[in-house]
Amino acid sequence: MTLRVLDPRLHPEGEALRPAPPLASLEGAVIGMIDNAKIGTERFYDHVAGILEREYGVREFIRRRKPDATRPVAPDMLAEMSAADAILSAIGD
């Protein structure tokens, strides 16, 4: 099976993005969650965080919310996410 990854950036610079290697385990991991400010995203992330904590042993979450769904993630928010082992970015309505 081939996995095709699309570059979502408005104006790509440099080389194409590549997926990071998978984590060996989520046990003790720090997970970043970027909320795009749509209505259902926060509730969805609450649910996902509960599952990741209970069933997979995730230690901590870094949750940040964009001002609105139309803007890219701000550089300072991306810098905060660099402390995470993995990042989820989701939308919801």
Descriptive overview:
A three-stranded parallel sheet has the order 2-1-3, sandwiched between helices. Helices cover 25% and strands 18% of the residues. The protein is built from two helices and three strands; from the N terminus they run E-H-E-H-E. The termini are far apart. It has a domain at 30-90. The radius of gyration is 14 Å and the shape is globular. It is of the alpha/beta class and 93 residues long. The model has no long low-confidence stretch (mean pLDDT 88).
Low-confidence stretches: none
Give the oligomeric state. Answer: single chain
Distance between the termini: 31 Å
Give the number of DSSP strands: 3
CA-based gyration radius: 14 Å
**What is the 3D form?**
globular
Give the biggest beta sheet: 3 strands, parallel
Number of distinct helices:
2
Strand order of the largest sheet: 2-1-3
Q: Mean pLDDT, rounded to whole units?
A: 88
Proportion of beta-strand residues: 15-25%
Binned, the helix content reads 10-25%
* Sheet/helix structural class: alpha/beta
What order do the helices and strands follow?
Answer: EHEHE
Q: In short, what is this structure?
A:
By secondary structure, this protein is an alpha/beta fold.
